[in-house]
Design goal:
heterodimer, A: 467 residues, mainly alpha, Cytochrome Bc1 Complex, Chain C, 2 domains, two-stranded antiparallel ribbon, globular, B: two-stranded antiparallel sheet
């Protein structure tokens, strides 16, 4: 048994038993972060704050919310919004945070892609982060159902229906998810359970995992420089603070984060009080009505890009219907980011600006996702459908091209670009109905997907310097 | 610092483009622009003669208006209770005490003369399905007198809720303000009273549904789901915004419409003032927070940079 002496203060008493000093050192005072960073490195702390806001506001909402299709709408829009003391504030904070948290997640994610923070030992950081993204998506989707407004209902109807596209088990799976043949009371109660219990717990555990994955490979820096953290930490502790390449989490790193957080909070609370319609769609203030389909059904903005990948395939391809083609692409879009470390065949850790072709690839990806997001909301009629097709195929093509691009395999890269361009043309001919021959386009898609799945397997990894 | 501002500018630009695309632009595509309401009812012709309110008092009885309509302020009672009236006509005919204050006089004259035409309901009612209120067959002079009379008896000041009750409340419930199509939901002494009221309400609503082909929506949250501007323009001309709807043009004046909107705002967004007032303080708090945080950061980083 450990030996305990008489403590002279409460802190000392606790320290003997809980090793508070050591814990604080490990977690904060001697948790080392590179000095060479910019404000994009503050997104993690902002996300943590937003999640905390979501949990706390959620607790208050949970005290009055009633998960019953007959009561849900009024418990939110009357009880919480109008009767409960500051209920409106909690609801606005919850709804806006749920939307804005995705903006920060996307910034966080693309920061990781830009600075190549997903590879060479940092794969687990990336994967745990992507798991968080997927769980947050499920959390957002289940939460959006709870007010039981028109868009809650119809988005649930459309999205749960997508699972019907899975071969063999699809139809049964949809019923299993809904708890009924159509979206109804059991659907609401089970998504309520997911939203307030299972998913938040999974998110908290994943956040713990995400933090833990940072321990061994450490946080990346603006130049992708490999830092000897132990040596630099010794320098810092020896008083060479200006010479050391690292800073402790507390108080140096956090002092900057808190400033960035303050500025972000101004933006966030401006939205909460004065500009909330983007996060609280007016149409969802109409109670759910299974008999009345809204003229335009669309998911929340953060799902629009993958929704548009689904809708982009608007014509049948040989034996596959447009819906099947869309579902295949949609399924890929939802998991493809997990595999980024293996689609990127280059070991070099450097900002995209110093990685030649990858720089172009990065901005093409950003541009394509913005196009997908915007056209994901527009009605898919006329030329909009074709733009959606180009952006959706383009999204897949970017990933198909990544192994060849990063490994410097220019022949393969040219082939993939050529197939993509021909697919664009074939799609245009389908759109204008000048080419009704499903055979050619089917063949093209077979080649396209073969390249897509084979390239990350056959292309060899190269280390550094490849353009 | 310069580099950080550059990064910030890029993010702001990208977020701005995306926001513009999914909000203002997408909504302009999904909800095409329409001309704002003028409340002039320019498609209707004014009456060629001037009315006399005193003669109107007699004319309104002679022409049979009070056979269906009550004028409670003049002690003219309703011939039927609302539920029976709805069984006969589809909807309870309005009490005319306040009508001259909330409905545009030109519209009122045109409505009496040819209801389906003024209400823009010719696609719903015709020879095969006649509108419950018959067209006026009296003289223009009688008509002008009746309108003058209705304007003369109308009170000068009506509350927002009274305007709503007369203008919209016989078809629309507002459950968040305990308003039903039968009037205020009363306090019940016992379960029998309550069940009795619910039965009456159900009968009335069923009649209304058969009459219009659909149950008119409860308007409790319309201020959030449609917004004040839409409601205003919709009331002035429902067909313009929702082609083919069974909702009649009711001919409210601009002021009465504003009162309806402000009533719906009171019902569906009653924390608006609190929200706007509190927001300033929260933002101010975070501005000061950020300034202090920046000073702290400068002090801390001076040691390491």
């Amino acid at each position: 048994m450990a030996h305990f002496e008489k403590a002279n203060s409460i802190y000392e008493w606790l320290d003997q038993r809980l090793a508070l000093t050591k814990l604080w050192k490990v977690l904060a005072a001697e948790y080392w972060i590179p000095k060479n960073i910019n404000f994009l490195w503050a997104m993690g702390v902002i996300l943590m704050t937003m999640f905390t806001i979501l949990v706390i506001s959620g607790i208050f909402l949970l005290m009055y919310y009633k998960p019953d299709t007959k009561l849900a709408f009024d418990s939110v829009n009357y009880t919480i919004m109008q009767e409960v003391w500051f209920g409106w504030l909690w609801r606005h904070m919850h709804a806006v945070a749920a939307s804005v948290v995705f903006l920060v997640i996307y910034i966080h994610m693309f920061t990781g892609i830009y600075y190549a923070s997903y590879k060479k030992g940092r794969e687990m950081i990336w994967i745990s982060g992507m798991l968080l993204f997927v769980t947050f998506s499920a959390e957002a989707f289940s939460g959006y159902m709870l007010p039981w407004g028109q868009m809650s209902y119809w988005a649930a109807q459309v999205i749960t229906n997508l699972f019907g596209g899975i071969p063999f088990i699809g139809d049964e799976l949809v019923i299993w998810i809904r708890g009924n043949f159509y979206v109804s009371d059991p659907t609401l109660t089970r998504f309520f359970m997911l939203h307030v219990f299972l998913l938040p717990i999974v998110i908290m555990m994943l956040i713990g995992l995400h933090f833990y994955t940072l321990r061994i490979p450490h946080v990346n820096n603006q130049d992708g420089e490999e830092i000897d953290f132990d040596a630099e930490a010794e320098k810092y502790k020896a008083g060479l603070k200006k010479e050391s390449k690292v800073i402790p989490f507390w108080p140096v790193f956090i002092s900057k984060d808190i400033f960035v957080l303050g500025v972000f909070m101004i933006f966030y609370f401006y939205l909460v009080f004065y500009h909330y319609n983007f996060a609280m769609d007016p149409i969802n203030f109409d109670p759910a009505d299974p008999m009345k389909t809204p003229p335009h059904i669309y998911p929340e903005w953060y799902f629009l890009w993958s929704y548009e990948v689904l809708r982009g395939f608007f014509f049948d391809v040989g034996p596959l219907s447009a819906m099947d083609m869309g579902l295949i692409a949609f399924g890929i879009a939802n998991v493809i980011f997990f595999f980024l470390p293996w689609f990127d065949k280059n070991d070099e850790v450097a900002p995209a600006a110093r990685r030649g072709g990858f720089f172009i690839w990065f901005w093409l990806l950003v541009a394509d996702m913005i196009v997908l997001t915007i056209w994901g909301k527009l009605p898919p009629t006329g030329f909009n459908a074709y733009i959606g097709y180009v952006a959706a195929v383009g999204f897949l093509a970017l990933f198909a091209a990544l192994p060849a691009l990063t490994a410097g395999r220019s022949g393969l890269l040219r082939l993939i670009i050529a197939v993509t361009v021909i697919l664009f043309i074939a799609g245009y001919l389908q759109y204008t109905k000048t080419m009704g021959n499903g055979f050619i386009i089917t063949l093209l898609f077979i080649i396209f997907y073969a390249l897509f799945f084979l390239s990350p397997v056959i292309v060899k990894r190269v280390s550094g310097g490849a353009r | 610092m310069n580099k950080e501002l550059k990064i910030l500018a890029i993010i702001v630009a990208l977020v701005g483009i995306t926001y513009w695309g999914i909000e203002p632009y997408a909504h302009s595509v999904m909800h095409p622009h329409h001309e704002p309401a003028t409340f002039k009812y320019e498609d209707l012709k004014p009456l060629p003669v001037k009315g006399n309110a005193q003669r109107g008092a007699q004319a309104i009885v002679n022409n049979g208006c009070t056979g269906c309509h009550s004028i409670k302020s003049q002690n003219i009672p309703a011939p039927m209770d609302p539920v029976s009236a709805s069984a006969s006509y589809g909807v309870n005919p309005p009490d005319l005490s306040n009508i001259g204050a909330i409905v545009d006089p030109k519209f009122l004259a045109n409505f009496i003369k040819n209801p389906t035409h003024a209400a823009l309901l010719e696609h719903k009612f015709g020879d095969s399905k006649p509108y419950p209120m018959p067209a006026f067959y009296g003289s223009d002079q009688d008509l002008a007198d009746i309108v003058a009379y209705l304007v003369s008896i109308a009170p000068k000041n009506l509350s927002d809720r009274e305007v709503f009750a007369d203008g919209c409340g016989r078809c629309h419930n507002v459950r968040y303000d305990k308003w039903t199509v039968l009037g205020d939901r009363p306090k019940f002494k016992n379960k029998v009273e309550e069940a009795d009221f619910e039965l009456k309400l159900a009968k009335y609503e069923e009649n209304l549904k058969n009459y219009l082909g659909t149950t008119p929506p409860d308007l409790s949250m319309y201020i959030r789901s449609r917004g004040g501007e839409y409601i205003r323009d919709f009331v002035e001309n429902p067909q313009k915004l929702l082609h083919g709807t069974a909702m009649p043009r009711v001919g409210l004046t601009e002021q009465a419409t504003e009162q309806v909107v402000s009533y719906l705002e009171y019902v569906g967004d009653r924390k608006k003032e609190k929200r706007n007032a509190l927001g300033v303080w929260v933002l101010l708090y975070f501005v000061i927070f950020s300034i202090l945080a920046y000073l702290w950061k400068k002090k801390i980083w001076a040691e390491v940079l």
